[in-house]
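Help needed: design a sequence for this.
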């Protein structure tokens, strides 16, 4: 499944540690990611939605998409590379 920017919520909320997280949605499921100090850490934080499943998305496709998408955002421009 091709991922588009319309499927990404860059700021879905904050986790229990106060870190912002986002969500990449597929068909009734998807993947969470946490905004971290580096792009690599943010990409390593990608986790399948434990309640709704992967939504038909492949984690490697989500990782590849976010690797290109996050640096283009205002928050992403502050990440270390």
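Sure. Designed sequence:
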């Amino acid at each position: 499944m091709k991922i588009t920017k319309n499927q990404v919520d860059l700021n879905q909320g904050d986790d229990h540690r106060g870190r912002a997280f986002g969500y990449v949605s597929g068909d009734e499921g998807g993947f969470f990611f946490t905004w971290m100090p580096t792009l690599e850490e943010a990409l390593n934080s990608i986790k399948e939605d434990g309640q709704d499943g992967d939504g038909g998305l492949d984690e490697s496709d989500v990782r590849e998409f976010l690797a290109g998408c996050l640096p283009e955002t205002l928050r992403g421009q502050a990440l270390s590379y």
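The two ends are 28 Å apart (CA to CA).
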